[in-house]
Structure formats: structure tokens, C-alpha cells
Amino acid sequence: MRVRVPFSDVDMHGHVHNGVYFSYVETALNTFLREAGLSGSFDPQRNDVVYHVRRTEFVYHSPAGFEDLLDVTPHVSRVGTKSLTFAAAVTRAEDGRPVADAEVVWVCVDRRSGRTTPVPGPTRAALASAAAERLAPAPEDG
């Protein structure tokens, strides 16, 4: 996902406020799931499970400011028994320089009981496939 930093995301120092990166990553992650055809797996109206954010971690490398173009690239990094871990890189669009790295852990919860539960098999398989596609070597140009 590419984002042009709006003025409203900049703090008094002229940098993107550190908390805004959470929104960038969440939007990119939802876009990734939708484009991979997986958003239905996470629709609480159609499933007996929901996903809650358990943990987020950000590592900031360099500041970004108003009008900067940033690329936010999420991927599946781990499919656990009861949790899903996603990672995202935030880089400058013009030169690929790192701005921030994020890790987001979702825990699978039974909607009715509120207790953790195993990630459903179809969701697990789809995300494992998405992770494998990311790690597969790119086809050579013929």
C-alpha cells in the first residue's frame, strides 16, 4: 500500500507521529487480506471466531514527514495454533530506505465464549499459502 503522508499525520516536530504508523500498518494488512481473497475469513458476521490484537511492536529507523510517499508492505510471518503473526515494512517509495518495521500478533477467539481457540483450518491453509507464495522464488523472465 502506498500512502502520501497528510498534514494531519505530522507532529509538532514535522515527523509522522509514531502512533500513526499503527493505522498505516492496519490498513495495509486489511488491504493485503482483501486482495488475497481472505477478508471473509475474518468477517465476524460470517464466522464463529474473531481476532483480537494481542501484541504490536514497532522499530523506527528514520523519520518521515508531510507529503512523503511511503510503501507499507505486510506479509504473514507465522501461523500458530491459536495466533497469527504479521510483519510489515514501511519504506520510502523513492529509494526503499527503511522507515519502520512492525510485527502484529492476532489471537483467535471464540466469539461466543470469548476464549482463545485454534485458528480454523481453512484460514490456516490460506494464510500458510500466502506465506509460502511470499517465500517462493520469483519465476525467471524468459
TrEMBL record:
Catalytic activity, EC: 3.1.2.-
Single GO term (MF): fatty acyl-CoA hydrolase activity
Record-linked Gene3D superfamilies: Hotdog Thioesterase
Ranges where the record places region Disordered: 115-142
Keywords associated with the record: Hydrolase
InterPro entries associated with the record: 4-hydroxybenzoyl-CoA_TE, HotDog_dom_sf, YbgC/YbaW
Family per record: Belongs to the 4-hydroxybenzoyl-CoA thioesterase family.
Listed name of the protein: Acyl-CoA thioester hydrolase
Organism from which the protein derives: Streptomyces eurocidicus (Streptoverticillium eurocidicus)
